[in-house]
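Q: Could you fold this chain for me?
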Amino acid sequence: MKIHILENLGVPDPAIMNLAVDHELTFPSQSCDKAETEVLISVKTKLGPVELSEYPKLKVIAVAFTGYDSVDLNYCREKNIAVCNVPAYSTNSVAELAVGLAISLLREIPKGNEAIRKGQWDLGRPGIELSGKTVGICGTGAIGIRTSEIFNVLGCGIIGWSRTRRKEFTDLGGKYVDTLEELCSGSDILSIHVPSNAETKALIGQKQLSLIKQSAYLINTARGPVVDESALYEALRDKHIAGAGLDVYSIEPVTRENPFLKLDNVILTPHIAFKTEEALKRRAEITFDNINSFERGNKLNRVDQC
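A: Sure. Below is the predicted structure, expressed as structure tokens.
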């Protein structure tokens, strides 16, 4: 099959070539014959009717990412274009960053690094232990459960809210609450792990933020639109919550106008939760497994709506 990669996958080209045996492959830096291209590999490139109409022989869009909201699924259904994604390649990576952001906030690691580089020594206030805190997991899919496991091992109590309740969560000691409001009010650390869609847009809004303890922290390694950023900024600015660790934003990349840059109780990272060497290698492997599966007539990781 003729495959064109639209974006850098973060894996060396020779490694990708080894995965693309029996396929004709072009990389992002190379031009492709759009009239003959059968497969597109994308990460977050917008692929709507205008873009996709340039590929008349397109059979598969292999999204090398968990989220696939950049692809127009209705158009793909109409044109019989299969769409597949990579749902679990970065589970460990995202969970580890969520926990890392929590510890960084509680122990003020970035401030300590900055202070010592300025010749200072005392941060003023003592840090806070993670052990013994209650962590609220918003969304108990694979990443939410893995995050729960790590927090649990570190001595935290775990509560969760999710549209689907899973035995894996309760087996590790997690306790489900009935409402999102209960989750927010009962958490010392609120860690978000839900997908971005119409149902979850601004899921954490002004009402939910008003219920979070003044001493509590919010961690978002999911997707930016899940949190009402204006409401979060106000809560952080007015110290209604203690702080936040954010890896995702409603507008990416973050610009100088982003109001979170003005706050000293926020740790910001540039959407790197998924981005580890191990995860990127898994992502590339699964992406080509999806393509090969399609070629054999199977439906590995096909998006349900298609």
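A (continued): The chain has a mean pLDDT of 96.
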